[in-house]
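Work package 3, deliverable 3.1, input record:
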Amino acid sequence: MATTLISGGTIISAVGRRAGDVLIDGESVAAILAPGQAAAIGVNADRTIDATGKYVVPGGVDVHTHMQMPFGGTEASDTFETGTRAAAWGGVTTIVDFAVQNTGEDVQDRLAAWHEKAAGECAIDYGFHQIIGGVDEASLQAMTSLVDNEGVTSFKMFMAYPGVLYSDDGQILRAMQNAAESGAMIMMHAENGIAIDVLVAQSLARGDTDPRFHSLTRPAELESEATHRAIQLAKVAGNVPLYIVHMSASEALEEVAAAQHAGLNVFAETCPQYLYLTLEDQLAQPGFEGAKWVCSTPLRTKHEHHQSDLWKGLRMNELAVVSTDHCPFCMKDQKELGIGNFAAIPNGIGGVEHRMELIYQGVVAGEITLERWVETCSTSPARMFGLDNKGVIAPGADADILVWDPTAKTRIGINDKHHMNMDYSAYEGFEIDGKVDTVISRGAIIVEQDSYVGSKGHGKYVKRGLSNYLH
Ligand SMILES: [Zn+2]
């Protein structure tokens, strides 16, 4: 087995930083060595990566992506091949994507279909959550089987999108009761979709059809109301672990913080778009431009304090994880489906490549520490979703490592750094005071010297255990 020594860097974990070398043997971390120790004990690695002046951190773990997901009459534009390659470019070494089951479909069949899309295509390792869009006896039984046999230990449900992926409160309760039995995590898209549909219909009837009305018809109150309701249902279901996805509103964060204070097993994530992009500056751009930033939950107004509250939530661990909800659509032929009707714009933003960069910029700006960057982008997502060998640099763990250069710079943009399969960048012109230097996936270098040197099919399916937070 080939050995690699990452030498001379500063190793950052969720709990601290120290100078040291990382010795990789084959696909795993073999040892962390004090400075000078490698020479003293005669380590003779096959390959040495000079990390002098650089940070050595666990590879990014993005637990919320949608590669080639069908939505709104089209399909997310990144395939597992293009999307995981872009992720690698961004220092991400594991994604957890979503297999989708709709009403009447067989859960196991749908999971198999997603395995077929991903197998042999991925640049980095991947797992699956299962979306349950239709709760019935068969899908409930399948949930238990997925936990026991398939390494799928989390199930996403929707309080939004009536008639599509929506579940009513009774269906949600039943699925939660099932998860409470098996130990699985329930992930929730918490927006009151029934009320939103009324506001959308009224908006369109008034002729308010521009992209910005996407946000104005999804007010923060309907995110916080659904968050509150999900938390209460989870409590009734036996304090089942509940993870609120893509949180965007201060009011919803308050619900999560209150539940955590009360001792409930409630967790939440946010995404870079909610930390950096707003209704006024992006979604409300003239004409149809704003379609680029139509996603749900929506971008919020900058005249309230959502962004600063979300950063605070990240500092306080009210928000445990940053994911991307990577769900890219091109403007041409995809977002354009909604010209003249914002409700027909496919919902989603591409960002899998830029999460490590954008959240690192939060370190530069003083919002969070380097350790918290590692914790929210690598360690906690791995622990939250039972990726036992990911998210840390420790002997025995998978050698998934990002070497980060804090002295170089990154400019994000369609003609700058951009490897996702989409015809625009949601973060055009953003400047990052740091740069992905080298990316290692299970011991194999996949990005170095501004080149992708990985290979399609290197990435393997990872069976996940139960959430480490509760077991
Ligand atoms: Zn999503």
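The chain has 14 helices and 21 strands.
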